[in-house]
Amino acid sequence: MSKAELGVGMVGYAFMGAVHSQAWRTVNHVFDLPVGVRLAAIGGRDPVAVKAAADRHGWAAAETDWRALIERDDVAIVDICTPGDTHAEIAVAALAAGKHVICEKPLANTVEEAVSMASAAADDAARGVRSMVAFNYRRVPALAYARALVADGRIGTLHHVRAAYQQDWLVDPSAPLTWRMQKERAGSGALGDIAAHIVDAAQFVVGDVLSGVSGMTETFVKSRPLSGGSGLSAAAGGAGVGDVTVDDAAVFFGRFAQGGIATFEATRFATGRKNAMQLELYGSGGGIRFDFERMNELQFFNGSDPDEEGGFRRVLVTEASHPYLEAWWPPGHPLGYEHTFTHEFRDFLVALDEGTDPSPSFADGLQVQRVLAAVSSSAESNSGWVEV
Amino acid sequence: MSKAELGVGMVGYAFMGAVHSQAWRTVNHVFDLPVGVRLAAIGGRDPVAVKAAADRHGWAAAETDWRALIERDDVAIVDICTPGDTHAEIAVAALAAGKHVICEKPLANTVEEAVSMASAAADDAARGVRSMVAFNYRRVPALAYARALVADGRIGTLHHVRAAYQQDWLVDPSAPLTWRMQKERAGSGALGDIAAHIVDAAQFVVGDVLSGVSGMTETFVKSRPLSGGSGLSAAAGGAGVGDVTVDDAAVFFGRFAQGGIATFEATRFATGRKNAMQLELYGSGGGIRFDFERMNELQFFNGSDPDEEGGFRRVLVTEASHPYLEAWWPPGHPLGYEHTFTHEFRDFLVALDEGTDPSPSFADGLQVQRVLAAVSSSAESNSGWVEV
Amino acid sequence: MSKAELGVGMVGYAFMGAVHSQAWRTVNHVFDLPVGVRLAAIGGRDPVAVKAAADRHGWAAAETDWRALIERDDVAIVDICTPGDTHAEIAVAALAAGKHVICEKPLANTVEEAVSMASAAADDAARGVRSMVAFNYRRVPALAYARALVADGRIGTLHHVRAAYQQDWLVDPSAPLTWRMQKERAGSGALGDIAAHIVDAAQFVVGDVLSGVSGMTETFVKSRPLSGGSGLSAAAGGAGVGDVTVDDAAVFFGRFAQGGIATFEATRFATGRKNAMQLELYGSGGGIRFDFERMNELQFFNGSDPDEEGGFRRVLVTEASHPYLEAWWPPGHPLGYEHTFTHEFRDFLVALDEGTDPSPSFADGLQVQRVLAAVSSSAESNSGWVEV
Amino acid sequence: MSKAELGVGMVGYAFMGAVHSQAWRTVNHVFDLPVGVRLAAIGGRDPVAVKAAADRHGWAAAETDWRALIERDDVAIVDICTPGDTHAEIAVAALAAGKHVICEKPLANTVEEAVSMASAAADDAARGVRSMVAFNYRRVPALAYARALVADGRIGTLHHVRAAYQQDWLVDPSAPLTWRMQKERAGSGALGDIAAHIVDAAQFVVGDVLSGVSGMTETFVKSRPLSGGSGLSAAAGGAGVGDVTVDDAAVFFGRFAQGGIATFEATRFATGRKNAMQLELYGSGGGIRFDFERMNELQFFNGSDPDEEGGFRRVLVTEASHPYLEAWWPPGHPLGYEHTFTHEFRDFLVALDEGTDPSPSFADGLQVQRVLAAVSSSAESNSGWVEV
């Protein structure tokens, strides 16, 4: 291609690394973009593993030190796929080095870290260095379309949001302890990992922020076998049993700043539900229902239909007129999970080309972090109301 | 029939009166019971209307004074279908008159009234006078079957209950003010009317009680046009506008006494959802999902199925081996709403014949009332935790 | 009641008898009709069984000879619920006796019998004696509403009908041989029993008739154990094994007279499908989908919705503006199977009062019979096309 | 990578070309294969368009003559994505040149062409040159899993197959005439384009072939506006109106050689159905249902479950133990349409490495062609039965 090409350097190569790689490989072949990308380098601490990941996922080089990776001349974009405790340090350093940054969610493990990142991002944006937090569910076409419906006034005044993110991968008490169950690495459990997604998605689709919450958390299995493992189960290593120091589930309700009430439920213990990221909205003019396990569908109730004709419409969000779909297959041919990332990178590259700030910003990531912190705070103080 | 026949006297003849009438007319023709019933008398204040209701619904006599009705020699069972503010007085008087009592839910408008009713019921049960609160959703075959699955250990240790009761009949702000929106008549709004159902159903299916809650309520439309009307819209009368003095929606979470967490959401503002009484349970051994809009189906995930064969089963709860179904149609032929009451009356009559206490008892109704009161109390005090 | 009351005499008391009884008991209490009914007498050959059925189902008298039953002065309506081989004789005699007749489907076991019945019905209608064939699925509110949508032009020019009626009650080869599997009693198997329903429903909803068909039938299990039994399994009696002389399944396609093609599939061997009477229609302006296992729902695709908003709407056919629903419960409260008969009887009584011919007529029943005969004929001659 | 790399040369670059490209780009990064691929050259007649396609889709070179493309030294695999009238010539030439061939379906436009291809393929396989027809739906994980269930005896003796492929992209009569509606280019309409898929899928999942059929075809819109266009609407060019010379819809039924009956329906006129490739199977031991619009789900009824626990299980076919899934994302994260091709290429490359014949073979493609020809023949002769 003759168009400009930006090199990407990605840190981390587990589950998120694999998904991001597939999206980076794909974005320029599906979307007709003004700027191209090159999979320049992948970073990770284990030299053998990172080299294997580079080969497998199509990265030109491998680095064992993330500092070396962000310093590379052929890296213009740094993509952070590591556990949350490392986000702030890497992101701030990369921005300081003049690299655009995409950072996986949650933005950080603490509000303090998130504040430092958002602050750096705001400063650096002023000099044209861009950043984005990777809330990929915003790029599910059905949810992007839901946002368009809401913005267009199709559900009217908001009354209710009902959100849930249900998984079941920890229901077996013999599932090993990994970094995702350790507070010092992951910050929190279901709260930061998946409640973060539904908080962001709800705020995105509604177009408003939560102003206060009341919450409760629970750890059903208090200790688990230690394990070496990798990927989703990359544990601290060693044998024996370790304490689970994060929540298995979090439930909370809240209010939106401009009106409307909301409930949230995030769990890794909903036996039979695999990745059921669900969102319902009800307003004076209509209703919307979504379940990621059927990610190509949006249920839409148009309140202005006559009573006898009204019903939730199962809209297959695969029409050329739907968000992101013009570039894809004919109607009725489903897209998959990974393309939420392909779309995210598309939007990021378009923003870079246009010189605008990609969305969601680190400030948006910080706001979600504040909500999660408020939930934790409420849960620790008898579920009393906490302002965000 | 040569079998003993008990006369029923029903107070109230609006929506619930119509449904109860259909169930009383049906119960002896579908189920082979040791005792029969006769629709002896119906009571209501308006002499013309109550006579018309008697004719329409098949009652032998009409009374305009409930005290006269409960005194009738041909009335052995008093069935109370009036607004909540009258339950205590009628029920206590009927029990004192030695009549068996079925009382619509919620048992009463206040905990105090409910205490008096439960106390009277306990005393009278000792002398063979029986009473039951009409939580009809326990008699949905799918939920009765869900209870059996749980009791049989099929979902293992409970982790989650997720319940919701979503309607949308008040989303239009021009819908008239009726007694159901007036605190002095109805006690509360969505809370007592429909949250009561999901609290009872959740506790019934789980086989445990809630030990504490945190909640929030909301009234989206603060005043509504006054109206005469009848049935669901039987208002205080007059013209102009009146204040809505109850909640339009209530959301809360809680903990079960023996473990497991739960969320509840009840609303009359979920645009597009008509009568979506929903219940989900997840435990160490399986999961269950139910939606009353598809009342003949239970979704059951059997956690002991091999991973690759596992999935929520859409069980059509219409087999002869399912609760109540032996008396009905062949598999795949749906039952309707009214038969939750037919089943309730069947169980009531069987208990009378066996000389046992029907379930749910007034004490069970009182316990639900305590949960609702705890939710209100939490909602009034910054959503802080309140023990039940 | 002061209104006129017509006595009903019902012949047969197995599955259909039980359902009809419940509908007769209910129709006047739910619908406000100009004419009432009385359950005057029930007929059956076994004196003990018919007396028990009378008691159980609420009939005032029992007769062991159907001729005596139709002669009774207190019987104005004869309701025929017996196997198909007896329909013609009873119906023609009842009409001759000046009694209105409702006859279960299929109208008869042969076209010849059906011709004689339709002929008698036409003659007797001229002197005010009315008749109807009981294709109850026309009275499913969702299908009546589908008919209204089609009649209103909402699906435009018809292109496709796709119909199926799937059950699985014979998949077990040890299920006993009953009259439903004997040609001399039932006329045919899945063809007359359930294909008859989807042929009638398709023609009713479309508003046109099939002009020709090509078909195939199959008997998967050629012989079955004999059995006494009753109800659905009322067999010829005796021990040993008997031949199945009817089809277990029938598949066929055809053309509508005014255009559009159709496929049909009826089987008692669709393992897992209990009573899945399904109908799909597609036209230039929209699409419709229905499954009786979810009888309260109609899926409607409105072709004039914008592409990105289009989707099959799950219409809960429980609004007061839907057919038959004004008399029932609030939105979202499901109706059950039996009420397709309650609606049928309502329409029959209204027609009697108005002095019009009820629908579907015996002539309609004859037309369905001609379609079934054409399918049989095609199946017997190498599946070649047969005009109806 | 150090592993062997085979160059791919692809002919055609419209819809199928785009999908195949994405799959070729992906297969080696997701699956750990013994052999790699390189996107060597893409072929097409228009030099500007083919160069643009090469750039967009990541092909190293472009050729305007397919003969030149198959002769290239860097091309070891020829992937044919052109209309059906060109398949035979290209495929036979490529095989003769010693290149492995993947050919899009239907294998050819006539049985004669398909015979020549199958013959060449058999000859060339003897010398290690491999070929495959691209029935990609076999590689939907849910259908591959369905095949495994059937092969494992889980549905027992087959009674029924009910298949349909419903689209609606031609329901608008102003949709332009393209090669897909011209007999000389496409061979047939819905029959060869989409009925071919359900015939192959049904035979694949059942593990048997159809022995005879009876069919009917229909062209609802006989002429359409001519258009230049491209991709799915690449027409013959010019203005005015042209005749549609293929079927818009085809319906047929048939018998499997080893028992069981089947119905098929393929249409481009099912308003509201976008790409609903559906398959149902019922046997003595269970039932299976599938709809490609929900491609990550398989509905499975296990006939050996107790009656009251039985129900169609919605199996999310995203477990690591499901076909192809070990290489992908965690449970509950959907795959998309394109990966049916990624899986196809994976299997093809594994077969090349192992020196075995990939499946489905050209002989399999020929067998499907014979079924389609029998349907056409039946449709032309009064729908009489035609042996395959």
Please outline what is shown here.
By secondary structure, the first copy, chain A, is an alpha/beta fold.
How would you describe what is shown here?
- The structure is a homotetramer of 388-residue chains.
- The first copy, chain A, has helices at 15-30, 47-57, 66-71, 87-96, 111-125, 141-151, 183-186, 190-206, 339-354, 362-380; strands at 4-11, 35-43, 61-63, 77-80, 100-104, 131-134, 158-166, 210-218, 223-225, 241-243, 249-256, 261-267, 276-283, 286-291, 297-302, 312-316, 386-387.
- Chain A folds into two domains: 4-136, NAD(P)-binding Rossmann-like Domain (Rossmann fold, 3-Layer(aba) Sandwich), CATH 3.40.50; 138-358 and 367-387, Dihydrodipicolinate Reductase, domain 2.
- The termini of chain A are far apart.
- The first copy, chain A, is 32% helix and 26% strand.
- The first copy, chain A, is globular.
- The first copy, chain A, is α/β, with parallel strands linked by helices and 388 residues long.
- Chains in contact: A-B, A-C, A-D, B-C, B-D, C-D.
- The interface between A and B is large, with 43 and 43 residues.
- Strand 16 (312-316) of chain A pairs antiparallel with strand 16 of chain C.
What is the strand and helix layout of this fold?
The structure is a homotetramer of 388-residue chains.
Chain A: E1 4-11, H1 15-30, E2 35-43, H2 47-57, E3 61-63, H3 66-71, E4 77-80, H4 87-96, E5 100-104, H5 111-125, E6 131-134, H6 141-151, E7 158-166, H7 183-186, H8 190-206, E8 210-218, E9 223-225, E10 241-243, E11 249-256, E12 261-267, E13 276-283, E14 286-291, E15 297-302, E16 312-316, H9 339-354, H10 362-380, E17 386-387
Parallel strand pairs in A: 1-2, 1-4, 2-3, 4-5, 5-6, 7-12
Antiparallel strand pairs in A: 7-13, 8-11, 8-17, 9-10, 11-12, 13-14, 14-15, 15-16
